[in-house]
């Protein structure tokens, strides 16, 4: 079965090329893994073109293994390019691609979810070679299929000419604060190559609220939306969802709205959806973390003062994600303080679902921003985004050595 190497020389701290030369290729040689070609990406979207070229040379009954030195964005580009391109010589048969990931990006959310790092180990050489070691040890035995979150961006109903655009994500689809952070952090990339740029961008956006409504879609096999119950420490049926009326309407304003697939963290230590690992889903689902200011009993109006006061609470909530995902157990007491005790309203709504719709208010430009694995798109005025978790087909799609 053919094995090729592709790296993005500019992702993360720009060391992918040297890491391949000094560690990846020597290890392949030492373990008799024959790599038939190694190429660096030269521009945006090039990764998809390179994989396509290799794929078209791969016999239809063989699996292509790609050793990919990348961050989450490069993987995202590859999957979207291949999903929207006809592959010559395959007569419509979808390919199965096996990925060996070498984490070279900034956040490396997928890799650090597959291989949760011990503190301080995330940059060590041996840690970065774990997917490759897994491939070397058992070429078929540790393959994890990637669930895709397929999001369709629709134009307003009266704009008949525009075709909906579909985007596949393997890590995160988000709106609100997270999308704003990713949008602003990209502009800080040159001066801050590491994850500190996310914190700076978070500060810049901490008082924004996002006006939108959302509709949550049920988990397919259950017929209902699930909500995490911090008391029983398990998912229960969402109180607004039953088999007769499974959809849950959620109204804004929102502060935070992040859905993940395949991952429990967005950075090595930021476990925003810890239940993706702690209560493993049995089918394609999104884990959705929502924070709404009006859940706080002391917030009753959208004013600059209440936004400023709530920013400090949101910060405390998100700090819990850095404490092994403890934010999901937070509630408000009567004075609006965050606590893990009592039976006050949840500060975080942790939802497991088959998908969701996001319908931003026309007047709120920031609510139109949506993030796919770090790439930012804008929902048209009057349009919406519909995100659905998709189960990979057998012998098709993307599998990762983990
Ligand atoms: N030769 C190149 N020159 C400029 N940009 C490139 C080149 N090759 C790839 N890219 C772009 O680099 C971008 C960043 O890659 P990627 O997202 O993998 O890294 P990252 O943002 O550092 O990590 P992460 O997504 O894990 O935070 C991709 O969007 C890709 O289009």
Automatic annotation (TrEMBL):
Q: Which PROSITE patterns match?
A: DAGK (PS50146)
Q: Please verify whether the record's keywords include Plastid.
A: no
- Provide a GO biological process annotation: sphingosine biosynthetic process
Please give an example of a GO cellular component term from this record: membrane
Domain DAGKc, which positions? 1-155
Query: A Gene Ontology MF term for this entry?
Result: lipid kinase activity
Name the UniProt key words of this record, in alphabetical order. Kinase, Transferase
- Name-wise, this protein is ATP-NAD kinase-like domain-containing protein
- Give the source species: Lentinula raphanica
């Amino acid at each position: 079965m053919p094995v090729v190497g592709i790296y993005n020389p500019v992702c993360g701290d720009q060391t992918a090329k040297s890491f391949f030369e000094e560690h990846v290729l020597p290890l392949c040689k030492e373990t008799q893994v024959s790599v038939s070609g190694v190429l660096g990406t030269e521009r945006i979207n090039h990764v998809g073109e390179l994989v396509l070229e290799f794929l078209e040379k791969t016999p239809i009954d063989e699996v292509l293994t790609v050793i990919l030195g990348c961050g989450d964005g490069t993987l995202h580009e590859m999957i979207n390019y291949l999903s929207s391109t006809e592959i010559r010589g395959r007569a419509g048969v979808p390919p199965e691609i096996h990925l060996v990931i070498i984490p070279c990006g900034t956040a490396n959310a997928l890799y650090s979810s597959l291989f949760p790092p011990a503190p301080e180990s995330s940059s060590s050489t041996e840690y970065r070679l774990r997917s490759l070691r897994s491939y070397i040890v058992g070429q078929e035995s540790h393959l994890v299929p990637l669930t895709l979150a397929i999001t369709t961006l629709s134009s307003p109903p009266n704009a008949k000419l525009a075709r909906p655009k579909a985007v596949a994500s393997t890590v995160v689809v988000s709106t609100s604060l997270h999308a704003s952070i990713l949008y602003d952090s990209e502009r800080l990339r040159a001066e801050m190559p590491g994850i500190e740029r996310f914190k700076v961008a978070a500060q810049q956006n901490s008082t924004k609220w996002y006006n939108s409504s959302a509709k949550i879609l049920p988990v397919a096999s259950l017929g209902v939306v699930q909500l995490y119950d911090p008391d029983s420490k398990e998912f229960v049926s969402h109180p607004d969802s039953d088999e007769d009326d499974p959809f849950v309407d959620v109204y804004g304003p929102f502060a935070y709205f992040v859905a993940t697939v395949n991952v429990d963290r967005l950075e090595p230590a930021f476990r925003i959806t810890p239940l993706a690992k702690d209560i493993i889903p049995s089918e394609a689902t999104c884990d959705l973390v929502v924070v709404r200011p009006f859940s706080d009993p002391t917030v009753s109006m959208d004013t600059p003062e209440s936004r400023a006061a709530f920013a400090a609470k949101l910060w405390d909530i998100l700090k819990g994600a850095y404490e092994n995902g403890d934010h999901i157990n937070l509630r408000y007491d009567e004075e609006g303080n965050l606590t893990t005790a009592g039976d006050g309203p949840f500060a975080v709504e942790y939802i497991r679902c088959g998908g969701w719709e996001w319908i931003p208010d026309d007047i709120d430009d920031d609510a139109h921003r949506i993030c796919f694995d770090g790439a930012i798109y804008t929902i048209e005025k009057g349009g919406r985004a519909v995100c659905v978790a998709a189960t990979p087909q057998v012998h098709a799609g993307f599998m990762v050595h983990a």
